[in-house]
Specification:
The structure is a single chain. The protein is an alpha/beta fold and about 575 residues long. Helices cover about 35% and strands about 20% of the residues. Strands 1, 2, 3, 4, 5, 6, 13, 14, 15, 16, 17 and 18 form a twelve-stranded mixed sheet that branches. A four-stranded mixed sheet has the order 19-21-22-20. A two-stranded parallel sheet has the order 7-10.
Length: about 575
């Protein structure tokens, strides 16, 4: 395949038709949504199946500061740099949720000279995929309540319903609600709540389905609750799986956009890495690996969150095998892991964290070592991308590089893609090409035949560093119930904090010997995994004292300002 025709001096977005044409797509393979974005057609992965597979590169990170470590910037910069080196390259990224856009982190379309275009569209409504997920999720919630009120068959025990409504905004006040309070009740009075749309099983299904038939079947397999005889009640039995699929039929089509240097990207689905499986869609990757020589895909948060789920959940379903993993770290993230600094979400990083401090760096580097070891357990070569900030100490950057190589990384490279675009990631791209050329023995961490408790124990010990796992009574009852019902052979998706390898954001560095608490285990039968809630992670976060929404506005011409 030929490299994309692009010039890094021209940072204006190309017409999306030119981006598609450079990928070898015909006009029948996509539908433009304006000049700068398009949706691919259904079945494209089958049409392209005779093309060779690309090298498949994952991008993950160490445990981050609340402001993030530039993982998306590095992923965009890497794809652009691969293209500048003469390879056809593209990226697959998640769609930003409005929750962080208006909350702490801001947008998810990159920054500096590593952005996706049209940036404002991608960060806000984009092509409506998030709204479709929200509508499909809430349609099921209303159908469940109507089914209960009218006492339809099969009769659901209200106490067994775990399906909640969702919204794509941070709104802690909706985390726990009581429904059915109408003057003339239209639904039973019961306690429930809202999750983020990114945490919905519908989002997970959209991200993991391999084709439209698979999507429809997965929606039908969702378990809405149990009968009084403890038999699962599926969405197929409730009669609304088809309507949910109708709401999602366009949302299932991956979105084609471009970087600021006109490298193509597929941006599709947006599950978070801490409360969901944290990866862009399987269908986008199945298409991308037939369109380019190199595909760069990013997973959410650290290797203990999104990357582990990329390997153990997403790769099991897609059948794709990664060729190398890029591990992003920063000097400030590692110094934070020393435990010597008071960092609070929603607040600026303390000035002392940004100053040279080799002692703090050495103490926090245990976290970097742990993440390298995590990736090694999947038998993948690791390239450490040291994302540099302007005020970083050269001595600290060189020390990180030395530590990474000493720990067994295939390469460790300082990158500055934020300020320099693709030119700041050329050395990283060269290291990735070399690492991906080596054969690997990639394997998932556990077999599906393991019991549910053995899977959770494997993750807790081998990934998080725990000594033992402790179950609250509700969690243990549900584990036993799911095993009895025949769901014990599903993989496990752990919902936990992103700020620590453990369940506790206060346990920094490389915690070991702790007890890993499981407070609940939920069934996502449609998505095809069990969902364990560990520690105090919330599926509906709140806003800070100064959310990013305060800075966003429009001018008299309709241009959006303040969107980070």
């Amino acid at each position: 395949m030929s490299p994309q025709n692009q010039s890094i001096s021209d940072d204006q977005p190309q017409d999306i038709n030119l981006i598609a044409e450079n990928l070898g797509l015909s006009r029948d393979d996509y539908e433009p949504y304006g000049r700068a974005k398009a949706k691919l057609v259904h079945g494209l992965e089958q049409k392209l199946s005779d093309r060779p597979l690309a090298k498949y590169i994952g991008v993950t990170a160490v445990n981050p500061t609340p402001l993030g470590e530039g993982k998306t910037v590095v992923a965009i910069g890497l794809a652009m740099a691969l293209s500048q080196l003469g390879h056809s390259a593209m990226g697959t990224l998640r769609e930003p949720s409005l929750a962080p856009v208006f909350g702490i982190k801001g947008g998810g379309a990159g920054g500096g000279k590593c952005t996706l275009e049209p940036q404002a569209d991608i960060n806000l409504h984009f092509t409506g995929d998030m709204h479709a997920v929200t509508a499909a999720n809430n349609l099921l919630a209303s159908i469940i309540d109507n089914h209960l009120k009218r006492r339809k068959s099969p009769e659901i025990n209200p106490a067994t319903i775990t399906w909640r409504r969702c919204i794509d905004l941070c709104d802690r006040g909706l985390g726990h609600v009581v429904t059915g309070l109408d003057h003339v009740p239209q639904a039973p009075l019961r306690e429930t709540g809202f999750d983020l749309s990114a945490a919905s099983e519908v989002m997970a299904i959209l991200a993991l389905a391999t084709n439209l038939t698979d999507l429809r079947e997965r929606l039908g397999r969702i378990v809405a609750g149990m009968t009084f005889e403890k038999k699962p009640v599926t969405v197929e039995e409730l009669g609304c799986a088809g309507a949910m699929a109708a709401l999602l039929v366009d949302a299932f089509r991956p979105n084609l956009v471009q970087s600021c240097e006109q490298t193509p990207f597929l941006v599709h689905t947006g599950p978070f890495g801490n409360i969901a499986h944290g990866n862009s869609s399987v269908i986008a990757d199945l298409i991308a690996v037939r369109l380019a020589d190199y595909v760069v895909t990013e997973s959410g948060f650290g290797s203990d969150c999104g990357a582990e789920k990329f390997y153990d959940i997403k790769c099991r379903i897609s059948g794709l095998i990664p060729d190398a993993e890029v591990l992003v770290c920063t000097a400030r993230s590692l110094k934070l892991q020393s435990g010597q600094f008071n960092v609070r979400p929603g607040k600026p990083l303390p000035a002392a964290l940004l100053e040279e401090n080799l002692d703090a760096l050495h103490a926090g580097a245990q976290n970097l070592k742990a993440h390298i070891d995590i990736i090694r357990q999947f038998s993948l070569p690791t390239v450490v991308a040291i994302n540099a900030f302007p005020d970083d100490s050269e001595r600290e950057l060189e020390e990180i590089r030395r530590i990474a190589l000493e720990q067994g990384a295939a390469a460790a490279v300082v990158t500055d893609a934020f300020a320099q675009g693709s030119q700041g990631a050329i050395k990283l791209a060269e290291a990735v090409i070399q690492a991906a050329a080596q054969p690997n023995q990639f394997a998932c961490l556990y077999p599906l035949e393991f019991s549910i408790e053995d899977k959770i124990k494997t993750l807790a010990k081998k990934i998080y560093g725990a000594e033992r796992v402790e179950y609250e009574p509700l969690a243990r009852r549900r584990v036993q119930e799911y095993e009895k019902l025949g769901f014990g052979n599903l993989p496990v998706c752990i919902a936990k904090t992103q700020y620590s390898l453990s369940h506790d954001p206060g346990l920094l560095g490389r915690p070991q010997g702790f007890t890993f608490p499981v407070r609940d285990v939920r069934l996502s039968a449609g998505a095809g995994f069990l969902y364990a809630l560990c520690g105090e992670v919330r599926t509906m976060p709140g806003l800070t004292s100064k959310p990013a929404a305060y800075d966003i506005d429009i001018d008299q011409w309709g241009n959006i300002t303040g969107l980070k």
